[in-house]
Specification:
Blueprint (H helix, E strand, L loop, with lengths): L14 E4 L1 H6 L5 H13 L2 E5 H17 L6 H16 L3 E2 L3 H12 L6 H12 L3 E3 L3 H4 L6 E3 L4
């Protein structure tokens, strides 16, 4: 399902970047997961995630592991972390680079009311001319020039 960016699949016209909520929906087995996976496949578009979303997910798993004192209680959390690392290994993960940082600083100077992590994801999306797939439409609607859609609801 993961795509590559840079013209490998010439039929693609848009890069779709999955926000953390859409990435999380692809975990496990559910009707929502199946619908999203099918829609992504049918889109024919390039699919990517951001390093910011990877950070958000990994922080969550690491916090869960840290909360468990009993090593045996950590087994399940470590297994889910391992599976998520394998998941991200198969994806194009867009970096936080100087262009994204410049865009972020520009938005901060404009006093865009949006959380830092979301604003970083928006910055990466904009510099790649991509469309963000997110459930968080209220916060992302505050970011000028950001193209976004919700494919989960």
């Amino acid at each position: 399902m993961a795509g590559s960016i840079g013209g490998v699949r010439e039929a693609a016209t848009t890069v779709l970047i999955l926000d953390t909520d859409h990435l999380a929906a692809l975990e496990g087995r559910s009707q929502a997961r199946d619908r999203l996976a099918r829609r992504l496949e049918d889109s024919g578009e390039e699919i990517a995630a951001t390093v910011i979303s990877a950070e958000e997910e990994l922080r969550g798993w690491l916090a869960q592991i840290h909360r468990e004192v009993d090593p045996h209680e950590q087994i399940n959390a470590y297994e889910r972390l391992r599976r998520r690392l394998e998941f991200f290994a198969g994806w194009t993960v867009l970096p936080w680079d100087s262009r994204a940082a410049d865009q972020f600083v520009h938005f901060r100077r404009q006093r865009i009311r949006c959380g830092s992590m979301d604003l970083k994801i928006a910055s990466i999306t904009i510099i790649h001319g991509a469309t963000l797939l997110t459930r968080n439409t209220i916060d992302f609607s505050r970011v000028p020039g950001l193209s976004f859609e919700n494919w989960l609801d």
